[in-house]
Design goal:
A two-stranded antiparallel ribbon has the order 1-2. It is about 80% helix and about 0% strand. The chain has one domain: Up-down Bundle (A middle domain of Talin 1), CATH 1.20.1420.30. The chain contains 14 helices and 2 strands, in the order ααααααβαααααααβα. The protein is mainly alpha-helical.
């Protein structure tokens, strides 16, 4: 028992002050049982931050004991696990809604919009906010930094492909009306999801097996393990279970919190959920940029956006299809245009494989403008 207490103290408090926020975990449970759902929402939202860090930490420890290919696959799978869990619980809530009542129809619509907004927000947050902060922080310490143009082009191409999957269903929904349009949009989304996930696994094969040399990241490996394999697995399972618990509380309290504080669901999904769910990963990207490891920082921000766009988003559509929830790639005009323009901006800035603080300021300015648009969205 003493061994585990020492290990937890070393992991949670010496390595990351972020884990002091774990106090919000029991608070969220307390407020839920007290039926104070607005405070339960915000406490569970904050509690997800340190839990996501612990999940990522456990994944890194496990990956250190595997091959580079398996380690990369593990990090790709669990890098956006918090967002995936929240989205899955929202989809389950939508499938359990009583559609025979107006309240049930509203709940299903709210949960679908929340899932779509969180997916868009994850892409925008990684591309504009985190990459922007990394460019600024790195640029303040180093006049110019470089990163792999091969990684930039590959991820950029995949992101543009995912934009095709967002734009075409949106155009289709505006072009074809009635039940025929609804059915066609669902079928189109399902086919596109299967294709995107297939391409994602081909990309993993390309990145981790056949063309590893193009994506080698200096400083990303050769770390020493600090936990045993058993402890890493225990931490991963425990943190995943706790994130799921917090996601359950968050999803079932979001409607009350949104109404009480007057926050648009779009703002909650696009800005708040991705920010808190990805906080630990974002912090890492900014810190390593300041240490002149921009290649690693870029891989975190751009790679996470790619995973969301070509793996997590289509996976959520397929899960919704299985649970008979009408989630499609028709994400809304504002969301679609926002993420499409963001991908174009980032591809343009990252084309030369160089970064400076001014380019980071441009990305942050773009994110602020979009954030204001989502905040004031009716």
């Amino acid at each position: 028992m003493t061994e585990y207490v020492t290990w937890l103290e070393s992991l949670s408090f010496r390595q990351s002050k972020l884990n002091f926020l774990l106090v919000f975990l029991p608070l969220s449970v307390y407020f839920e049982y007290q039926h104070n759902l607005s405070l339960a929402f915000f406490c569970s939202l904050i509690a997800i931050m340190p839990l996501a860090f612990l999940m990522g930490r456990a994944t890194e420890e496990i990956a250190l004991r595997t091959s580079e290919s398996i380690g990369g696959l593990l990090n790709a799978t669990f890098g956006n696990a918090a967002e995936m869990i929240i989205a899955i619980f929202a989809i389950i809530a939508a499938s359990n809604a009583n559609l025979a009542t107006p309240e049930g129809v509203l709940t299903q619509s709210t949960m679908i919009n929340l899932v779509q907004a969180s997916l868009i927000g994850s892409i925008l947050g990684n591309l504009l906010l985190i990459m922007g902060l990394s460019f600024v922080w790195g640029g303040l310490h180093h006049s110019e930094q470089t990163f792999s143009t091969n990684a930039s082009r590959s991820n950029g191409s995949l992101l543009l492909l995912s934009m095709l999957v967002l734009i075409v269903p949106s155009v289709y929904s505006y072009s074809v009306e009635g039940q025929k349009g609804i059915d066609g949009l669902s079928n189109l989304s399902h086919i596109a999801s299967v294709i995107l996930i297939s391409i994602y696994f081909l990309f993993l094969l390309f990145q981790l097996k056949t063309h590893v040399h193009l994506f080698a990241t200096e400083g990303a490996h050769f770390e020493e393990s600090e936990m045993s394999q058993r402890d890493s697995i225990i931490l991963l399972v425990l943190s995943t279970v706790l994130v799921s618990w917090m996601a359950h509380i968050l999803v079932h309290s979001v409607e009350v919190a949104a109404d009480e504080f007057g926050l648009p669901y779009l703002f909650i999904g696009v800005i708040l959920l991705p920010f808190f769910g990805n906080a630990a990963e974002h912090f890492t990207a900014v810190v390593v940029a300041g240490k002149n490891k921009m290649e690693l920082s870029f891989a975190i921000s751009m790679g996470s956006s790619t995973q969301i766009a070509v793996f997590v988003a289509p996976l959520m559509v397929l899960i919704s299809w299985f649970l008979d929830v009408p989630l499609t790639f028709e994400f809304g005009l504002l969301e679609t245009i926002s993420v499409f323009l963001s991908v174009l901006i980032v591809n343009s800035i990252a084309e030369d494989g160089r970064s400076n603080w001014l380019e980071g300021a441009m990305l942050l300015g773009s994110y602020t403008i979009l954030g204001a648009a989502f905040l004031f969205y009716p």
